[in-house]
Amino acid sequence: MFYSDATKILHLEGIYTIGIKRPKLRAIQYLYLGQSNDVHKRMQDHKYGGQDIDAFIRRNYRRNGGKYLRVKWTGEPRHK
Q1: What CATH code is carried by the domain that includes residue 37?
Q2: What is the rounded end-to-end Cα distance, in angstroms, of the chain?
Q3: What pLDDT does residue 21 have?
Q4: Containing domain of residue 66, as a range?
Q5: Which of 10, 21, 23, 41 has a beta carbon 3.0–4.6 Å from 68's, enabling a disulfide?
Q6: Which residues contact 42 (CB under 8 A, 6 or more apart)?
Q7: What's the pLDDT score for residue 76?
Q8: Is residue 80 part of a domain?
Q9: 29 - beta bridge partners?
Q10: Is residue 27 part of a domain?
């Protein structure tokens, strides 16, 4: 799923990954694995946070609107 489609992620507990599509390699390089009590809200928080992955996401939005950012998630109640 495109990161820009993060609004489609449900408000649920789960585990998620953030990656970037590498067109020349025809692959997605996963950069971050996270867990949250509300995956939808956490994806929104990444746009404004202070972690390295947050800065990476902001840079990609400035460069190309997040065209190559990808996210995968799975609902996992009591995932800790």
Answers
A1: 3.40.1440
A2: 24
A3: 92
A4: 3-75
A5: 21
A6: 16, 34, 36
A7: 74
A8: no
A9: 20
A10: yes
pLDDT tens digits along 20-63:
999 899 999 999 999 999 988 998 898 889 999 999 989 988 89
Written as one string, the DSSP assignment of 13-58 is -EEEEEEEEETTTTEEEEEEEEEES-HHHHHHHTTT-SSHHHHHHH
Q: For the chain, what's the residue count?
A: 80
Nearest to 32 by CA among 43, 48, 44: 43
Compute the distance between CA of residue 36 and CA of residue 24 in angstroms, rounded to an integer: 32
| Model confidence pTM above 0.85 | no
Q: Specify if 53 maps to a domain.
A: yes
Asked if residue 59 is part of any domain, the answer here is yes
Number of domains in the chain: 1
Indicate the residue type of 56.
F
